[in-house]
Specification:
The chain is α+β, with helices and mostly antiparallel strands and 550 residues long. It has helices at residues 34-60, 68-71, 73-97, 136-140, 165-179, 205-213, 216-235, 244-262, 325-330, 339-349, 358-367, 430-435, 458-478, 503-507, and strands at residues 28-29, 100-103, 107-112, 118-123, 127-134, 143-150, 158-164, 198-202, 266-270, 273-278, 283-288, 293-300, 310-316, 332-337, 376-377, 394-397, 401-406, 411-417, 423-427, 437-443, 452-457, 535-536.
Amino acid sequence: MTTHDQAPPDGPVAPDPTLLATSEDQWSRVHVISPLVRGWIALLAIAFFAGRDLFEGVLIGEESPGLSDGGVRLPWTIAIIAGVVVLVAVGFMLSWYFTRYQVTEHHVRVNSGVLFRQNRQARLDRVQAIDVVQPFLARVFGLAELKFEVADAGESAVKLAFLKLSDAQRLRATILARAAGVSIDPENPEDIQEAPEREVLALQPGRVIASTLLSGTTIFLIFGVAAVVVFAVTLDAAAPLAVIIPLALGVAGGYWSSIKNGFNFRAAISPDGIRVRYGLLDTRTQTVPPGRIQAVGISQSPLWRTKGWYRMTVNVAGYGIAATGDAQARATLLPVGTREDVLQLLALVLPNPGTSEPIEVFTAGMEGRDSIAGFLTTPRRARWIGPFEWRRNGFAVTDTALLIRSGFFWRKLAVVPHERTQSLALHQGPVYRRFGVADLLLHTTPGPVSPRIQQVDQHTAWRLFHEQGVRAAEARRRSAPEQWMRPVEVAAATLMPPVPTYSDRDSREAPDNHRGEAHEPHPTEAHDPHPEEAQRAPTDHLGDTPDGER
């Protein structure tokens, strides 16, 4: 691709005409040093193994094998090293030459590979999120990688590595505009500009470090060291103490992952979605379009309770289940924050909470117990199943979302918009049947949030099972189209609206019979006292709802 040496302009960034495909045959290339940025570790390993013997001989004062036999082997050593360097350089150039990408009105495509060709594409209307990633060496060269998250993709469906940072910003603005339904004139691409943003919150490094030290990893470390010491004293042997070293290394790795992924964290709101930036050495900028978040999870560990801190995670189609530290960071909307921070970000995800007093309802979900603010909890007769959490397990229904509360030591709250409910399942084992309770599981896209209503009265669970399917179908019919910016006029003078908040909504008067309460499920004619494993997928007509899980 054609690169530009000048610095990116101030203010909104317009897409570069060279980045846009005006026909199906027009392709662009990534930055020429992209293979070097991707493969610098391999080059470092080659240099290490090739020069190890030579440097060791110099350091200890012995003759290096490469200089033996009167220096006869020295030319061969230099020739071999030079040959390896040439082969690597040729490989890098071929990799760059055969890597091309194309952005059309409906797709983004990437072709790569020399011997084994790989062709990947993603539909713009299925793009769930766009990340701008800068590994450490890429930051040195001013490069960035674009990652496109697509529904039903465990990994990034398309990766563009690497582009100049300014080009990556332009291309992201173009793709977001096209995915949003904005028509682009190839002759006047400057009409499409990067959406402005308004910063919502920024985390201080001190809070990130303190939250890491007070995390569940510290609890695991304390109990792990205590168990090792007890075994060592009981067995009167020092062998168990050797376990402390790998235990400490694992904990240190967890600490480092939490700190580097929470460092420099900033969240902002823009017309194209929620923008999240974070990273210590490697930096990442994520843009999640509105409406693509399937579920929100709010959790609080025992040690965080002393500080009033919470963590927010999200299920986004394409992110998949977070198995690694980086994957967990991508699914994290807020690494650590106060109750006010959580409510602020929750207002971005769910601008209409569906209740007249959202602060009371969500606070009851995060901190409360018993039947307050419209929450229904585990009946008293089933307290022996969960002696600690039975007063906290429960749910509340608003006009727009289902709130699921659980956990006594580790508090959890799951918020699922009605239109994001994909299917429902009722579970009741023999013990639950004895106490007349059941679990209701909501199926959304894979992710760290697992919405499950635990140990609720079986009649209430059965009513909610039917009513939630109706609510989900109605909410999907009312939901906005995928192209969320089509009715919005995009212009250079576009101004950011005020950041959504629940404070103004909470201060308004509401009818007395709805103040501070969510809706309780209404009785229906459908009734089943034995919902062992009832399952359903919400459809547009309740009478056509299948019995099996979708």
